Fold this protein.
Amino acid sequence: MSAHSIQFRVYYEDTDANGIVYHARYLAFAERARTEAIRSLGCSVLELANEHKLVFVVRDITLSCKKPLRLDDIFSVHTVLTKLGTASCDMKQTIVRDLQICAIMNVRLGCVHLETNCPTKFPTSWYSLLQKLNCHEEEYLSALHQKQIV
């Protein structure tokens, strides 16, 4: 299993008038975390675009908010690949603060050609790269529980 984790801080711009993170910001945090997860493997999404004329697009996403993040909180986003197809992949992202799950997102990304916007197979090198983030959900949940995250 290879999960990627990264920490962020909640800034004023992320919150509503009550200092609680606005729901759409969770999507932005997840996007940043996915980008950094791929970068941690040695490539960037910009390389995919420049070298292969391919980009990732969000096809489906679900967001389940469990506990609110608030102004100045430090939290982490844990990202794993749960399924890898030839032209799409599924990722699970969990936002955690103080060992408590605040939000869970399930994301399906598609790989599309920049010029045609048509689904396109991942290049072999990228398919292999993404496999490094692969994790079965049971393993992922077990790892979270071992860190005593609830």
